[in-house]
Design a protein that fits this description.
Layout lengths: L4 H11 L21 H7 L3 H13 L18 E8 L2 E8 L5 H21 L6 E8 L6 E2 L37 E2 L3 E2 L3 E2 L9 E6 L3 E4 L6 E4 L3 E2 L2 E2 H18 L3 E4 L9 E5 L5 E4 L3 E2 L14 E4 L7 E4 L7 E8 L8 E8 L2 E8 L8 E8 L9 E5 L10 E4 L1 E5 L27 H8 L8 H4 L5 H16 L11 E8 L9 E5 L6 H19 L16 E4 L6 H4 L4 E9 L3 H7 L2 H23 L11 E7 L5 E6 L13 E7 L6 E6 L3 E4 L7 E10 L2 E2 L6 E4 L8 E5 L10 E5 L2 E5 L11 H9 L5 E5 H5 L10 E5 L12 H12 L3 E5 L3 H7 L4 H7 L2 E5 L6 E4 L11 E2 L14 E4 L4 E6 L6 E6 L8 E4 L9 H15 L7 H5 L2
Helix pairs in contact: 5-12, 9-12, 13-18, 16-17
């Protein structure tokens, strides 16, 4: 649906979703001026008129009530004056004597500040809004944040153990995997978190808002803190932004703590130290400390460190379903802790992560996200806590308490502030407000845990305070000082409907370097987005705001809640009530750039304030390819990614990861070159690869996945070309949030860049061998199609913007077919791009032998046509979320220039779903699918179809390439 400007305004009015990042949504519907605040503000042309309008609205803050009967400021509060000068608006209030204003100040700070900023900041070109309050007419006005009570929260519990008095039973070390060798390439290391510019830092992230219990509704129920507008919801968009950023930080070496669960995993398994799935080896002692994760005795166990591993605790869950699981650890911090080693065993091998528990603990700390098979397996589905500490620091220990696999759904959060039970939300844990995640992870031993997660007037106001309070709780100063770690809240903004761009926020009681940190992150987002949105790259041009920061009243980043532990700011990543910004914020590639910019800003912060290295991790390698070398080995090759601009620094080395299933990766081999030969692989097995770049900043995000079925001798007859690069909002996952569906940016449901898995598996079932390359390797000439008998081309939902076949690819394919090559290609937009949009009509009709009929078959099933290669296919389905993605608009086709329909969509008219072209007697054969092959739901049918295609091509059984040459 497309909105006119009037439609957008109407939708905003109905949903009430045009609201700043903080403040209760219930007050958005109140007209505090009596004439429409936003409209009146825009009509005010002088500072005097604007001041009078603000004073009129602010006086009503203590009079007008929302639907629950609440006033914005204490009842009877009046506005004494409003001053506007130099972009700063100062509003003074007098609250009546005898009220307990301190108990209300936190909510008043958030809500009153939010209303004033929302209605008046843009209209008056404000950079700061100051709220000053006094109680009674004789007192002096004080900044509103000074009225907030300073609660005593335990933040520095030195939970040291007596390492000299360790006790327990000895036992042999747990079995360890043996590292293999790549011939001629040195030892294969064990995969783990990269070291980079942020190593030794802890970064606390909060993607704001989420599903929240509303006790004042009749009846009470769960609600989003922000509404849905323009197919976007801020609550869940902030979560998606958090997830993008977490991976950059992890790859730069940071310890990452998120205050909403990371990633998307509906299952959860928590193993405490007393759980049946935990096995012990070596000497462990039982602690009697009162601070620990869950119920049970002992609270946790600890072991003395050693330069060689002599004690392990292995946590082996029963994984309910195969998938990617975020893994977390819960350990009490203390002065005798170390940089504790975690060995995560998954389907790709073993990954090592170290967490310094002298500096962080008493809450869930993310260890990364890994692929696990279903069931229980200590070998490839566990977390091992090791006592190995290479420094050999005497008197230090490691701690084994709780490990969490996955996020799960919401649980019983007890009674609300009215004393009534909250119902179960039924929502995924990560989509709920931070208040509940923090409540569930706070553990035992804190005298007043409610001072962290239940300190507001309701559950929404709890969520403004809980993240900074929990950050202060989890962060233990081990000599690193205020500038050693960092906090960032991620939100989006709302205003008049016309405002755009990123804003860094500063509060009335800021942390030490908050103004500089806010400017760093906002300016970096603007600079990087401006650089990346060149002509045609993004749907709209990014708006670089003149004023990149705003000073107001934001409890989430007030120094009082953070306890002076670290600097903090909020980044407003754009305006979700604006058509242009909301469109950009629904683009995965834009969210990625914003995340990378936030990471860059953190590196700059630590460099400026704590002498950290100014080094940025490199961009992903490009033009990747993997091929049999003719002697039983595989050559993996690539080119460096782009350098400079909004991207990263140059790579100094590369690492090639291996996988048996294409999902879990490990067994890294490093090189300083741009190719790597891996020998000693098992013949007639499929091996998957991906490549990452490294430098002093850390490790890049990985390349797309490659696959090779190893041949003992000779070259591969088949090449898989991955031409599916598209990553945009068209393939976002819609989430039903009335009054409309809101986009979710779940990358594995958009483009996971590993669809070679389905093609490789089907090819392997035929017993033949194959290589893989990115389509850019064909474009650049790195790979010559004529070296292969058959090419399998993946196009997914590649379309007009990314081009299914550019001119270089069209030439390469034309020459390949002219040489009697066989081509099997599939994708939902090939005909749309080449014929309907005019990007290769002659190529589509004369070379691919396809004729486009319509853009959308409007079905997700097909059946084989009689007398064709697919006549044995009675029925197939190709809509396979969540395994892949939704192929929204499958092309309908008809035969041309000798091709015939071999699959028909089911339903009225049974239009063509696939074409086969027999070519001449010696080759030049084509099979073209109007939908993506990888989206076929049945592996059995994929295997059957691939076998039929190769039989049609003459490659049913493995044949030497010399036979093809003589063809």
């Amino acid at each position: 649906m497309r909105f006119t400007s009037a439609g957008v305004a109407l939708c905003a009015a109905v949903t009430g979703s045009v609201w700043p990042c903080s403040g209760c949504l219930e007050f958005a519907e109140i007209d505090f001026t009596g004439a429409g605040a936003a409209m009146a503000a825009r009509a005010s042309e002088t500072p005097q008129a604007m001041s009078a309008l603000v004073q009129r609205a602010a006086t009503n803050f203590g009079r007008l009530r929302n639907a629950q009967g609440e006033t914005l400021m204490p009842e009877g509060t009046i506005c004494d004056s409003v001053e506007m000068s130099g972009g700063v608006m100062t509003v003074r209030f007098t609250a009546p004597e005898g009220i307990d204003f301190p108990a209300l100040a936190a909510d008043a700070m958030e809500n009153a500040g939010a209303v004033l900023r929302h209605h008046f900041a843009e209209a008056a070109d404000l950079t700061e809004c100051r709220l000053l309050v006094r109680v009674g007419t004789e007192a002096e006005h004080r900044p509103i944040h000074e009225w907030i009570p300073s609660d005593s929260v335990e933040t520095d519990d030195d939970s040291s153990e007596d390492a000299a008095g360790l006790r327990g039973e000895s036992g042999p070390p747990a079995d360890e995997p043996v590292a293999g060798n790549v011939t001629g390439q040195g030892a294969l290391g064990i995969a783990g978190q990269p070291q980079g510019a942020l190593s030794g830092r802890t970064v606390y992230l909060y993607g704001g808002h989420g599903w929240t219990w509303e006790q004042d509704w009749t009846p009470p129920d769960w609600r989003l803190q922000r509404g849905v507008l323009l197919n976007m919801n801020e609550d869940q968009g902030n979560l998606d932004q958090q997830n993008f950023l977490a991976y950059y930080l992890f790859n730069a070496g940071a310890t990452v703590v998120t205050f909403r669960p990371i990633d998307y995993q509906p299952n959860a398994v928590i193993l405490d130290n007393t759980s049946a799935g935990v096995a012990w080896s070596g000497v462990w002692s039982d602690s009697s400390n009162s601070t620990y994760y869950g119920p049970g005795s002992p609270p946790y166990r600890f072991a003395a460190t050693s330069t060689s591993e002599t004690a392990t605790a292995t946590y082996t869950p029963a994984i309910p379903a195969e998938g990617f699981y975020p893994v977390y650890t819960w350990v009490n911090f203390g002065s005798d802790r170390v940089n504790q080693l975690y060995r995560i065993r998954h389907t790709g091998g073993e990954s090592q992560v170290r967490i310094n528990h002298r500096r962080v603990g008493c809450g869930w700390v993310w260890l990364g996200t890994y692929h696990f098979a279903s069931g229980s397996s200590a070998a490839n589905g566990s977390v091992v806590i090791s006592n190995q500490e290479l420094s050999g620091d005497p008197g230090t220990i490691v701690v084994a308490d709780a490990i969490r696999f996955g996020n799960g759904h919401g649980e019983d959060y007890g009674l609300d502030d009215d004393g009534d039970p909250r119902t179960l939300s039924g929502y995924l844990r990560e989509t709920e407000s931070t208040r509940y995640w923090i409540q569930s992870m706070i553990g035992n031993g804190l005298a007043s845990p409610q001072t962290i997660y239940n300190n507001g007037s309701d559950d929404e106001s709890d969520s403004w305070q809980a993240p900074p309070r929990m950050a202060a709780r989890m962060r233990r100063d081990d000599g690193q000082g205020t500038t050693g770690d960092l906090y960032l809240g991620m939100h989006t903004n709302a205003g008049s409907g016309t405002s755009r761009g990123a804003v860094g926020l500063i509060t009335g009681s800021p942390t030490a370097n908050q103004a500089a940190w806010a400017a760093l992150v906002a300016d970096e987002v603007d600079a990087d987005c401006t650089a990346e949105d060149g002509p045609g790259n993004w749907p709209y041009t990014w708006n670089d705001r003149v004023n990149s920061t705003f000073t107001g009243s934001y409890g989430e980043i007030t120094d009082g809640y953070l306890g002076g532990e670290m600097d903090a700011t909020i980044i407003e990543g754009g305006y979700h009530d604006n058509l242009e910004d909301s469109t950009l914020l629904r683009e995965p590639r834009v969210r990625n750039v914003i995340a990378r910019a936030c990471y860059h800003a953190m590196v700059r912060y630590f460099n400026q304030f704590d002498s950290g290295p100014l080094a940025f991790l490199p961009e992903s390698p490009v033009r990747v390819r993997a091929a049999n070398n003719g002697t039983g080995g595989v050559v993996v090759s690539w080119q460096p990614g782009p350098v400079g601009g909004a991207g990263g620094d140059a790579a100094t080395s590369y690492v090639v990861y291996r996988s048996t299933n294409g999902l879990g990766f490990g067994n890294p081999a490093t090189t300083t070159g741009t190719s790597l030969t891996i020998n000693g692989l098992t013949a007639n097995q499929t091996h998957h690869f991906r490549v990452a770049a490294r430098n002093a900043g850390g490790e890049s995000l990985p390349s797309e996945v490659l696959a090779v079925r190893v041949r003992a001798s000779g070259a591969s007859p088949i090449l898989i070309v991955n031409g599916y690069d598209r990553l945009d909002r068209s393939n976002n996952v819609p989430e039903d949030l009335p009054p409309m569906a809101a986009d979710r940016l779940r990358l594995r449901r958009n483009n996971s860049y590993d669809y070679v898995i389905q093609h490789a598996s089907a090819l392997a079932s035929t017993g033949t061998w194959f290589d893989t390359c990115a389509n850019e390797a064909v474009i650049s000439g790195d790979v010559n199609l004529s070296s292969y008998h058959t090419v399998v081309w993946i196009l997914g939902e590649e379309s007009t913007v990314d081009r299914t076949f550019d001119s270089a690819e069209q030439t390469a394919v034309t020459n390949f077919l002219a040489g009697n090559g066989r081509l099997f290609l599939s994708g939902a937009e090939i005909g749309w791009d080449l014929e309907a949009q005019g990007n290769g009509l002659s190529f589509f009709q004369n070379q691919l032998r396809g004729d486009y009929v319509a853009d959308d078959a409007d079905v997700y099933s097909a059946t084989g046509a009689g007398g064709t290669i697919f006549s044995g296919i009675a029925s197939l389905s190709f809509n396979s979320p969540p395994a892949t993605y939704d192929p929204n608009f499958p092309d309908t086709l008809q035969g041309i220039n000798g091709s015939v329909i071999c699959l028909r969509y089911t339903g009225a008219g049974t239009p063509g779903a696939a074409l086969q072209y027999p070519g001449g007697l010696t080759g030049g054969r084509i099979v073209l699918l109007g939908f993506p092959f990888e989206c076929i739901t049945s592996a059995t049918i994929r295997n059957q179809m691939m076998s039929s295609v190769l039989a049609f091509f003459g490659t049913t059984v493995p044949i030497e390439l010399s036979v093809f040459s003589a063809d």
